[in-house]
Amino acid sequence: MNKLYFLIIEALKYLVIFLSSAIVIVVTFQVFSRFVLQSPSSFTEELSRFLLIWIGLLGGAYGYHSNAHLGLDIITNRLKESLQHWVAISSHLLIMLFAITVMIMGGLSLVSLTFDPPQFSAAMEIKMGYIYSVVPISGVLIVFISLMKISALVSQMLNKNEAA
Question: Which of 44, 59, 127, 156 has its CA 20 to 30 A from that of 24?
Answer without folding.
Answer: 127
